[in-house]
Amino acid sequence: MSTNELRSSLLARSFQLRNKNAERDIEEERLRCTEMESEWISLTDELRVEIETQRSRAEKDETQLKQEKLSTEELEDALQRAVLGHARFVEHYTELQEKYNDLGSRYKATGEWITELKKAVAKAGKKGCGSRFAKSLATELSALRVEKERERDLLKKENVSLKIQLRDTAEAVHTAGEVLVRLREAEQSASVAEEKFNEVEEENEKLKKKMEKLKRRHKLEMATIKQNLKNNTLPESALQPLHQRNLEIELQSA
């Protein structure tokens, strides 16, 4: 064998070994790339599920918060109407009590006047004054007394009715006080729910930023891996599975 043939044989073997090493390196790089893609896909899916869970929780908290705010507004309106109604009842009762007291005073004065008048009429009768006038006056006074009694009974009934209304109003105000306590509790619950909702929103934003960061990092590493594979003179046909997997990842991310 000549020197040239020996040299050619050695060069051929050297190229074969180099190609085998390059193929082995490329295969190892492809396997590592596949493993990284699987990890990225798994991590992306986990983040997507976590974001969806946080979004559902945030929507639920937001719905609950709106309901509690609506209940709070209704309770405030009911309490305000109860307080105003109680104030009107108290005012009406006070006015009626004043009228009743005034009527009692006038009734007492009228009774005293009637008594004095009867005494005067009796004295006049003893002195021989007209008995017809005395009887007529007595009839009118009796009618006046009946009218006053009827008016007084009417005021008494109205007074009793107002007392009952006042008692019912007092009970309503007591109930309104309990409602106010529940209102404060509802406001506190609404405040807590709002804080939780804000926390969930912040957590969602953090997860979104983290996912975007991971996507950018993944694209950068995939570009680096592609460049390394190209530098190893890997045929384009061997890169087709990698391109297809990257396309699937981008579609899932979208």
Explain what this protein looks like in three dimensions.
Helices cover 96% and strands 0% of the residues. It has 254 residues and is mainly α. It has a single domain (3-253), classed as Helix Hairpins. Helix 1 (3-126) packs antiparallel against helix 2 (131-231), helix 1 (3-126) runs parallel beside helix 3 (236-253) and helix 2 runs antiparallel to helix 3 (236-253). The two termini are 65 Å apart.
Number of discrete domains = 1
| Rg, nearest Å | 51 Å
Query: Shape from CA axes?
Result: rod-shaped
**Nearest-integer average pLDDT:** 70
Helix and strand succession?
Answer: HHH
Major sheet summary line: none
Low-confidence stretches: 233-239
CATH uppermost class: Mainly Alpha
The CATH homologous superfamily is termed Methyl-accepting chemotaxis protein
CATH architecture: Orthogonal Bundle
Structural class: mainly alpha
How much helix, percentage-wise, in residues?
over 70%
Give a nutshell description of this structure.
With 254 residues, the chain is mainly α. The chain has helices at 3-126, 131-231, 236-253.
Relevant terms:
0% strand, rod-shaped, mainly alpha, Helix Hairpins, 254 residues, 96% helix, single chain, 3 helices
